[in-house]
Design a protein that fits this description.
This protein is mainly beta. It is built from one helix and 17 strands. The chain is extended and about 75 Å long.
Length: 238
């Protein structure tokens, strides 16, 4: 996991000002596939046939982009997932026959990912909404998928994250029962009313989460749901 820091020297000060840091290398994993020894009843069954190799490669390399891979360790406090693609395939031979298939895999980021979190709140102006972001990436925002349902018609809705320097999301002219879907990671916004051009009534401040505590204040009664995965720094895999 390669790490870059951003620093700046101000004037003649010999000590730089620390401005931030980022991770940029991808995870690379290697896996070896062998036949289950418990199912081997003869020397012939120890090896992969041409048909078996073709079927395995069809499943692992016959798609575009990244696929979700779940990894189990002997001891874990949560399930972790990697978004991987198979970059290279090698065969391990014994006596001229294929005894193992070695997969060299590349992930989509420097991080593994948690299971998907789903949180639904009935928010009101009388109390704050608190959401804790347990991300292992302490330098960047977490960009969730959010659905907002108006309990009644709202002319002006504001959702303010007090923990993010009062970052405020505003939406105009919501009708009763209308559902707004906001995908902050892809900067997409849509309404359950297909004919509506919702972007005209949006200030383009997509909801985002800082690491740790996020305290929101809303201007009207709404139902709001968050869906996201958080990045995990993984030191070793068993």
């Amino acid at each position: 996991m390669e790490n870059d820091t951003v620093e700046e020297y101000v004037g003649q000060n010999p000590v730089p000002i620390y401005l931030g840091s980022s991770f940029h290398s991808k995870l690379h994993l290697t896996a070896a596939l062998i036949k289950d020894p418990n199912t081997i009843h003869s020397d012939k069954n120890k090896y992969f046939t041409e048909h078996e190799c073709r079927e395995i490669l069809r499943q692992l390399t016959g798609f575009y982009g990244y696929k979700q891979m779940q990894v189990f360790s002997y001891e874990f406090d949560e399930l972790l997932f990697f978004h991987i693609r198979v970059a290279n395939v090698k065969y391990q031979k014994a006596g001229g026959r294929i005894a193992g298939i070695v997969l060299e895999m590349e992930c989509d980021s420097p991080f593994a990912w948690s299971s998907e979190f789903h949180y639904t709140f009935h928010a009101s102006p009388s109390s704050s909404l608190i959401l804790f972001n347990s991300s292992d990436n302490l330098y960047d925002y977490l960009l969730p998928k959010v659905t907002i349902t108006a309990d009644a018609a709202i002319s002006h809705l504001s959702i303010c994250n007090l923990s993010d320097n009062n970052w405020t999301t505003t939406l105009q002219s919501l009708s009763a029962g209308e559902i707004i879907t906001m995908d902050s990671q892809r900067s997409l916004l849509s309404s359950s009313h297909p004919s509506r051009i919702i972007n005209n009534d949006f200030n383009m401040h997509f909801i985002r989460l800082v690491p740790g505590k996020n305290e929101f204040q809303v201007s009207h009664d709404i139902q709001i749901a968050f869906t996201y995965r958080v990045p995990r720094k993984v030191g070793f895999i068993l």
